[in-house]
Please model this.
Amino acid sequence: MDGLEIHIHSTTSQHERQGLPAFVLVHGIGMSHRYLNRLHEVLADHGNTYSIDLPGFGSTRTPEDQLSMSDYAILLAHVLTRLEVSNAVLVGHSMGAQTVVESAIEQPGLASHLVLIGPAVDSARRTVSEQALALLSNALMESPSLTGRQLLDLLRCGPRWFQRELPVVMSYPLEDRLSEVEQPVLVVRGGHDPVALPSWCQRLADGARNGRLLEIPSHAHGVQHSAPGDVAAGILGFLDPNLADPAGPHIIKVRGRAVGHEFLLRS
Model:
């Protein structure tokens, strides 16, 4: 896998973060770190936060050959090792949920917890047409700000790479692989998400060895963008009830300001 390019967008503190978690955010197919920015910013007040652009997505170079989910998992593990990040909270959206699950299986010491937001692909609807209809329905519910970011990312990805990787995503047996994960798992869905339906998300939570389901009412597939405070509060409460605001869904505990920067790794 020589020559593959990964971009890491990080927000790390100028001060010690001893005892605080590190968060690693992984995007879905065709997307990049951009539509994870809002969640990234909230989580960065509670620990060092890294958003990953996988090869072929965002502004990374397009690989010559198809990559498997195991390939993505190995690359993610390589990145975290280079960053000296261990026992991280791996947060994946849509296809990213597959990546973090596979990473946790490949290198279990890299993750302390997994968070699967709008996980793909529902085993009861494993056809391209069904998923396309669900995504079209979802697009009508999302905000223009999210839709604009998604369209730009899709243009950057391009149809050739999207179509090459789509079979990888469609065929990944998330429900089966999740049963092999040892870490606690939080499944998050928007209450109006037509892609990750309640029955699917409940099956995933039930199938995990230590699983929990969190639903954010009145939000769609891009709940991490439309309700970043609620999603972050759910994640923090999953890690430690003392980290979340007991008076409401939004986070109020801010632990200093962080410094953001971007760099890339080539395998």
